[in-house]
Automatic annotation (TrEMBL):
Gene Ontology biological process: Mo-molybdopterin cofactor biosynthetic process
Domain MobA-like NTP transferase per the UniProt entry, residue ranges: 6-142
Family matches, as PANTHER family: MOLYBDENUM COFACTOR GUANYLYLTRANSFERASE (PTHR19136:SF81)
Pfam families the record matches: NTP_transf_3
Source organism of the structure: marine metagenome
Keyword field contains Transferase: yes
Protein's UniProt name: MobA-like NTP transferase domain-containing protein
Entry GO MF terms: GTP binding; metal ion binding; nucleotidyltransferase activity
Keywords (A to Z) from UniProt: Cytoplasm, GTP-binding, Magnesium, Metal-binding, Molybdenum cofactor biosynthesis, Nucleotide-binding, Transferase
């Protein structure tokens, strides 16, 4: 059991994708179902977004900010969380696995604020553990219109976890073409 909360960001306008990404299907399941499965070891799982998906009974937190940015979802999650550690994962990572979650969780250390995957020299900010003590820094970033999760991470004490051996798990689904490519990887 991972003694943390998993917050799945389902917000966003999905302009390039053309429809809500979490509803996209891979085989006989939705992308959201795949991500929920990858988070099955967490004490709690919650969805964060603008609108509650009626198809799911998973607890939902409405994101009331007008701004569309992952830092808003993080802020909403940290405000609500009863856990010290909180996974923030976006709904556009359909190849994510629970073994990656376990590996990340195993790297936490006292004094760190973020446990974050790194793939091809890029921080994977929308699939990382964030400590609740970042709430004030997150709030200040939003108030100052500094909406980059990368900047937030770099302003904190973070642990990078190299996932160059599992790059496919971090393939981001932004377009319908991305979805087709991801489906091909599963064949």
């Amino acid at each position: 059991m991972i003694e943390a909360a998993a917050y799945i960001l389902i917000g966003g306008q999905s302009r390039r994708f053309g429809s809500p990404k979490w509803k996209a299907r891979i085989g006989n399941e939705t992308v959201l179902n795949r991500i929920l499965y990858s988070c099955k070891e967490f004490e709690t799982q919650q969805l964060v977004g603008k609108y509650r998906p009626s198809e799911y009974k998973v607890p939902f937190i409405q994101d009331r900010h007008k701004i569309q940015a992952p830092i808003i979802g993080l802020h909403t999650a940290l405000q609500q969380s009863k856990h010290d550690w909180n996974l923030i994962i976006s709904c556009d990572l359909p190849l994510m696995t629970n073994s990656i979650m376990d590996r990340l969780w195993g790297k936490r250390k006292t004094g760190s604020d973020v446990i974050i995957p790194i793939v091809n020299d890029m921080l994977q900010t929308t699939c990382a553990f964030y400590h609740r003590k970042l709430l004030d820094l997150c709030k200040a970033g939003i108030q100052n219109n500094m909406l980059s999760l990368n900047d937030l991470v770099r302003a904190s004490t973070y642990i990078e976890v190299d996932f160059s051996d599992q790059t496919d798990a971090f393939l981001n689904m932004n377009t319908q073409e991305d979805l087709v490519s991801i489906k091909k990887k599963l064949l």
